[in-house]
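Catalogue entry: protein

Sequence with per-residue tokens
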Amino acid sequence: MFLLRQRTTLSSFRRGVSFIRLGSSKATERFIPSRLSEIEDVEGYQYGGFHPLAIGDTLAHGRYRIIHKLGFGGSSTIWLARNNKHGTLVTLKVLRADMSYKPIDKIPEMAVPKRLLEIAEGSGHFARNNIQTIDDHFIETGPNGSHLCLVTKFAGPSISAMSDSPGRVWGSKRLRSHLARKVAKQVVQTVQFMHNAGFVHGDLTTSNILFLIKENFMNMPDSDVYAHFCEPETEEVRTRDDSPIGPHAPEELVAPIENSLLTHSLYLQEEVMLIDFGQAFYGVRPPKSYKPATLPSYQPPESHFEGKINMSSDIWALGCTIFQIRAGSPLFETFFEAEDEVLKQIVSTLGKPPESWWDSYKDRHPWFDEDGNPKPQELQRGFVPVEKTSIKQKLSEIGSQDVPSEGGTDGSMFEPPGARMDEVEINLLGDLLEKMVRYRPEDRININEVASHPWFSL
């Protein structure tokens, strides 16, 4: 996905998923691990893996030039590049060679947005502005194989990245209330367009919603890019035995742009774009080979317990997303996206799940009695006890633990620390989320009912 880095436990690019080392092990590691923060595993630079790139490199016969780095994922590295023909900044995603073998029309990340754009243009639907589309693609051949490269519009930080609060021990950084509702409405209307067109997104999270960059920054020269976002930080690649690194790895690793440099309102529009359609599909059920890949904190229970996903699964994930847009923190918060920790949060918030799922939840005994209630704290095991809560209680606590940011104000797009939701909004948003985040898919409201909810009109 095409995102910007954040320095929290839920990285916007990594999405909590460890990098697959293409068969490497401690015994076969060639390179000294990088000391840079938030960097791809250098062992991924081998045949079938990442394409080695450096600042200044050109791709597609000189059409695009690398000027900075935006991040990485388990299957790609993501770069800020310049379209040398038009002079504009673009996002360039370079897939690993072993992820570049599928025919173009079989890659959901390309095929789904293309089809949605065709539908939007045919109907004049505004949602075409809020869906990330692939503007160009090509194959780049290098020492590690042939790599599919995807070009999209350069977009700003994710909602998740906007809430990043370096140095802040308690509380969260949140969009101001009016902007949060505006952004949430845009996301809901985009999902509404997808569902009404017959598509399931399959991976709705705050990491897959990006703010758009103001148009006047899309053509800034390299010197201004470095003045605003700093020169790229690099580190020499070295082998453990001092042997030559060879052609498969780059001479230097490049750290992504600091998230804090990209979240300033100076660069950003109050409009967002939905991205990452790699898990999207058409129809009432996914292909037979489909495997849900949503982060556990957004994963609906039917996906966790039964491996199923449909449009109602999007509604659950969208409810979790709306909560985080307004709160600045996840509805089901956990470190390192551990599934068991997320299930504990879900049960403590929603109560006992349906019996078949409850029976499948084998790790519940240290925390809950047979009625789904948290056990007395002295009988629970673990460092953090489980406490009974609810969605509305969580909404009422937003802002209660805020502390001022180290630099003073968080900026014009954010609420001041300590701002609380009033009772009217707690009740309205609580009503919406309680209808979306329900155990049984058939009990959740549909996307048209979500879009017409009065919370968006406050």
Observations:
- The two ends are 32 Å apart (CA to CA).
- Confidence is low (pLDDT under 50) at residues 1-23.
- The first helix runs from residue 108 to 123.
